[in-house]
């Protein structure tokens, strides 16, 4: 592949000196002149110089495994350039920003939008697991959201290090992953499986909905914010079970539970207006067309508008994102009905 390097996007050192040794790599943006497209090039040559030729072959085989992943929400691997001096993986370049940037800039994400993103990520993860690939490092930094905020990509599957390999880079033990997102078995240096990724996925979903990192120790319920259903807490808690045998079993099941967590309540609108929560009211209104909404009894529409003013006028930072989403929903129903 004939490329021209344009700039280094990042130089990442995951971990710290001493007992934590993770991965060092450099990612740069380049342009494929032959096919006239931007690509991302990840270089892992600083690590490879620490290993023998036989061990380098093992990295090469794993790169081939990663290249077999074919999913619309996983950046495609275009090529691998492997020589004694370098090891480059050429990826599809995804324009956008990672969830860490979005969380730090915007705080909590609307529940409906978070569901959309995580359904896509869980689908990508299910595909990887079917191909016997464990991500091992799911976190906001490794989820890219496109500029229109509609599409999420799971990135940076990396290249795993075995215990023997890691010890070549340090005189002490090691852990592969990122503190705060690692499952108990990762922290203990034990073997990992697909349920390890489910744990990290739960931590990341919590952070996106809360707009902050998950606290250590006791779990703080998200549903104290009435725009978030208690079933979302139930889903995350099941992902975070310390014993993997009790944890949610697969990305497919995660997706099913995520969809069900935001399903329309079975109660009629009149009951929800009387004592329901914001997430219930939102779920009902989302299913109404503009004309159906305007056909509701005037009294119910007044109560809905009153709820909208209460939410929008709230100074609760936790409701800021929900207020924006609810206002947008109401405007589409009212304005479209007048067109």
Strand order of the largest sheet: 1-2-3-5-4
Please identify, by name, the CATH architecture of the largest domain. Answer: Orthogonal Bundle
What pattern of helices and strands is seen along the backbone?
EEEHHEEEHHEEHHHHHHHHHH
* Amount of beta strand: 5-15%
Mean residue pLDDT: 80
Radius of gyration: 23 Å
Q: Would you identify the CATH H-level superfamily of the largest domain?
A: Transferase(Phosphotransferase) domain 1
Uncertain stretches of 5 or more adjacent residues: 8-24, 169-173
Count of the domains: 3
Q: Based on helices, strands and strand pairing, what is the structural class?
A: alpha+beta
Largest sheet: 5 strands, antiparallel
Q: Name the shape in a single word.
A: elongated
* CATH uppermost class of the largest domain: Mainly Alpha
Percentage of residues in helical conformation: 40-55%
CATH topology category name of the largest domain:
Transferase(Phosphotransferase), domain 1
Terminal residue distance: 52 Å
The total beta strand count reads 8
Question: What is the helix tally?
Answer: 14
Overview of the structural elements:
It is a single chain. The chain is built from 14 helices and 8 strands. It is α+β, with helices and mostly antiparallel strands and 339 residues long. It has 3 domains: 3-92, Phosphorylase Kinase, domain 1; 97-261, Transferase(Phosphotransferase) domain 1 (Transferase(Phosphotransferase), domain 1, Orthogonal Bundle); 269-337, no CATH class. The strands form 2 sheets. The protein has a 5-stranded antiparallel beta sheet with strand order 1-2-3-5-4. A 3-stranded antiparallel beta sheet has the order 6-7-8. It is elongated.
